[in-house]
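Reviewers asked in the last cycle whether our approach scales beyond single polypeptides. To address this, we selected a multi-component target totalling 996 residues and predicted its structure end to end. The input consisted of the following lines:
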Amino acid sequence: MSAASVSVNIGAANREALDRLCRARPAWTAVRPAGEALGLTGQSLLHAGPPIGWERMCGPMRGAVVAAVLYEGWATAPADAERLAASGEIAFAPCHSRGAVGPMAGIISPGTPLLVVEDPINKTAAYSFFGDGPWGHQLRFGAHGPETLAGLRWLRDVAAPTFQAVLEREGPIDLASLMSQALSMGDEMHMRNAAATGLLARALAAPLAGAVSNQKDLHAVLRFVTKDNDQFFLSWAMCAAKAAARSIEGLAGCTVVSTMARNGVDFGIRVAGLGDRWFTGPASVVAGLYFPGFAAADANPDVGDSAIMETYGLGGMAMAASPAVQKIVGAKSFADAVATSRSMAEICVGANPLFPLAALDGTGTPTAIDIRKVARTGLVPPINTAIAHRSAARMIGAGISTPPLQPFVDALVAFGEAYPA
Amino acid sequence: MALRGVVWRSTYHDSMVLMRIAEGLRARPGVREAAVLMGTAANHALLAAAGLATPDVADATPGDLIIAVDAGDALQAQAALDAAKGLFDERRQAREATGQALPRTLDSALRQLPDANLAAISIPGAHAAVEARRALKQGLHVFLFSDNVPLETEVELKRLAVEKRLLCMGPDCGTAYLNGVGLGFANVVPRGRIGCVAASGTGLQAVASHLAALGEGISHGIGVGGRDLSAEVGGLMTFLALDALRADAATEVVVLISKPVAPSVMPRLDAALRALGKPVVVCCLGASPEPGSAGTWVSTLEDAAHAAAALASGRVWAARAFSDTEAVRVLLARLAAEAGRGARRGEGILGLYTGGTLAHETTLILEPLLGTIAANFGGRGPGGPHKVLDLGADEFTAGRPHPMIDPSGRAARVSEAGRSAKVSVLLLDLVLGRAAHDDPAASLAAAIRDARDVAARDGRTLTVIASIVGTERDPQGLRAQTDALESAGAIVLPSNAQAARFAALVAKPELAPAMLGQR
Amino acid sequence: MSLETVLGQPLRVINLGLEIFATELQAEGATVVHVDWRPPAGDAAIAALLARLDDE
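The resulting structure, written as structure tokens, was:
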């Protein structure tokens, strides 16, 4: 392959990638258990981030594994669950290896009810789980106590079938237009999902009342959707972003990032033209604001598949849309947030007109991160993210994590080898 | 002594910005030396050689900034490092106040300025060629100030440029004028009817400044870089530039400034000069024309300006050794009188130059008059009483700013020369203009004073002769800079060629009858 | 913009490198965008690879 033909391919491939990302119109179509939706069988667990084994897993992820093992009934006590996990009998794989995304620890087991999001334009699908449980009892932060397990069972037995019933009656819920609207209402859809959650709740309220005859269950599901959960929509946002990103996975000659994800120990990327290969570096320490009583020493390094938001052009890339998120993640000022969105244009192929940024005169959010531009400028995409406690199974703050540059450079070198002159 | 060093990761600034900040630090109380450098291998070696390297800075990469300070005590050193932060913050705030973030690449710059027509490139040579290629592919003309671009790359860039009828001015192009706008180190000269094609930045500066003094001006000054008329490059950019000036209605006379042209290129050049259809002056320092060559050939930069002005106004002109022979006689008489008071003279002329072309011109003038001249260029050897040094050459500028930007290096050598019994005449250039130091005469004048005082105390005569490339409208002001040097005891001649001839006269008075005419 | 055209037009410059060149051009009334250029990440091999993988 000549140098000239490689150059033409990259430019064209990248423009095609931008096109696919921009024309995606993901919609929530169904709720299905992971075993059925992903073909997850036997003692298999999916986790957030690049591949990792039990020995290296961080505290929140180990806690979440224990919760999943107990939920599946593969063990009955946490100590036994840990022994099982350490024994090698559980097959671990990244959520991303199955077209799924998991927030924070991101553990999916065969019995986990998953949102199914489908994009009719690019014909892709993506899956994630519902944010579970009250504060301090959430699987994704590593909780595995009785309240957590009760919550997981309630999700499986009550909430999931309810949502499935609503979707069967009402048809798919358009996430693309919902997210576009939410952006204009001040969400960036990674750490600020309040408007999107409100819009989703509005879309679900009457259908839920129509679908659920049991008053107690209806009350519980409506509370689940509306109370104390500004981040509820994040799972849908992540699925929408993943569905869009799947459309570029494997696109030959394309230097656009198809995945960014963290497992709490490693940060990893995948590149469209390099298929399934992961390029990793150390997960960053998140720079941010802590809830009262917590500090940096308590924090787990960056964790979760939610960096799929930045991969899609939202989250940190869209900070200029979200004055509210600055306070949440401790950005210096609105001017700074605008400057971030502007500087992200330096490393992206283009902008997504579905998500116009008023602060940038209606230019769309910077979309399609090009590893060549990252290597050339040294600019890496900032990730707005929650901060997990390293052991105490809770969220302790929020901030901005700066991924390492080296994985992008390593990917560039691999791309050069995969596409020689 | 307190040595402190600090590294700012992933912080890049251009070399001139860093130099100004280092200057600011050196001015602080107690600071003996300060270095502000990117962490390249060459700079690490420089720090070590200057005794400024500390373990703290050892792992700085080329993308990291090193600040190293040597001060009287720890408090002063720390204060200087803190001040550095303040100096950088000032710059950042000034930029942020404008509200617009600077683009990081050529591509994003083009989004901001889609109808850009020129890229001015002065980044390190290793990267400059890549950006120049990108710019040419985007249809931009290129002003390529950077050097250390391999010859084969220069050929490739210029072929691409010629194919698209774009200018690729350089590599190693210090000065250019397009449509009355000066690029790089350019003097403030009027727009006018003389078009120049120059393989030398300082050469173009000198010719442009002389033209301004003669009441003429520049239509365009197209720099082509020092290697354009070599056999390998084959004059690619020179021919494109000549063709452009041929067609340019504002250009009435063309001046070509170059070193000797490669024999394989000469026939094509001759044809191109004939095809101009306008009078052309050729100044190829070190070369003489073949009989029947096109153009008016001159042997100095000053003469190139005179000849061009004469051709433009239809006057007749003849080269002279000095513009004011009488003034020269008076000066020589005065010097002879001073010498008569018993002070010894050393043997030799020492030329300390910031402009390589001026240094070259000087050796060409001195050699026929004085015999072999030692120099650090042009394949000349080191020995002999007379020596000319181009202080802008690589061996003096590795890791240090060019002397036109940072005059302190040459000032130190001038002081040193005052202590040498061998040096009778110091011969200096001074180059003014945009982007150059804002008061280059100041440190030079101080050094000249110092050198002459030391020599006088030692019972020796040291004559300091200088010329200034510049115009009154230059930011530094020609008159003010001339006054500064003259107050320090330097004798300032109107051109480099005249300064060189005057130096020869001082070193070898018996040349006077031939050069000045019999009395 | 062709050679003939540029010699008659105001200069609109993109400056990569010494900031002082951009400042001086602005003072002369030319339109200038100064690029906050940094060397690319990695070594010369990376820089060469980036050049090879450039868009046409």
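The mean pLDDT of chain A is 94. We regard this as preliminary and will revisit it once experimental data from Aim 1 are available.
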